[in-house]
């Protein structure tokens, strides 16, 4: 029987911070207008190719990935989810607006990231604890501290 070896790499905190700086860069933000136009084009493409999707999914997917190769696959997935499309589209628009503010210098990238994380926490994480305040109270009741 083969044994699986696990390895752990020790990384210093300053190295992690440097990685964050490299990954999080305003210059890495794509052209917002082009991306917005791609979203609109994708919605039109998706809605206008229902028959092809239903009759020949393989051909549809090839055509879609060829036409939207510059669009993040996560956006394609979100916009293809008909049941949640309205909610997903609102989130994409919010993200594009935030990225636009960062790109224009009206908001810094770290601030935008923190706001995004808090929105995600409010939607998915805090409710499982009865809300943010109850989570904080529970942590404090157990002797923890919240900064």
Keywords summarizing the entry:
68% helix; 147 residues; 8 helices; extended; mainly alpha
What does this structure look like?
This protein is an all-alpha fold and 147 residues long. The chain has a domain at 30-84. 68% of the residues lie in helices and 0% in strands. It is built from 8 helices and no strands. It has helices spanning 13-23, 32-48, 50-55, 57-67, 73-80, 85-104, 109-125, 132-141.
Q: How is the secondary structure organized here?
A:
Blueprint: H1 13-23, H2 32-48, H3 50-55, H4 57-67, H5 73-80, H6 85-104, H7 109-125, H8 132-141
Helix pairs in contact: 2-5, 5-6
Structural class estimated from helices and strands: mainly alpha
The profile of the biggest β sheet is: none
Q: Please provide the count of β strands.
A: 0
Q: Compute the number of helices.
A: 8
Tell me, what's the shape?
extended
Query: So what's the oligomer here?
Result: single chain
Rounded average pLDDT: 85
Which percent band covers the strand fraction? under 5%
Output the radius of gyration: 21 Å
User: What are the secondary-structure elements, in order, as H or E?
Assistant: HHHHHHHH
- Gap from first CA to last CA: 48 Å
The amount of helix comes to: 55-70%
Low-confidence stretches: 1-9
């Amino acid at each position: 029987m083969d044994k699986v070896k696990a390895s752990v790499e020790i990384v210093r905190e300053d190295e992690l911070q440097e990685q964050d700086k490299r990954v999080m860069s305003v210059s890495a933000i794509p052209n917002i207008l082009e991306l917005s136009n791609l979203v609109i084009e994708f919605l039109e493409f998706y809605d206008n190719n229902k028959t092809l999707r239903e009759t020949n999914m393989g051909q549809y997917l090839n055509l879609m990935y060829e036409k939207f190769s510059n669009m993040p696959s996560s956006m394609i997935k979100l916009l293809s989810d008909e049941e949640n499309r309205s909610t997903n589209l609102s989130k994409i628009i919010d993200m594009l607006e935030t990225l636009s503010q960062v790109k224009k210098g009206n908001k810094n990238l770290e601030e935008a990231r923190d706001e995004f994380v808090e929105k995600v926490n409010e939607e998915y994480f805090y409710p499982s604890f009865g809300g943010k305040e109850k989570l904080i109270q529970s942590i404090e009741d157990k002797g923890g501290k919240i900064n």
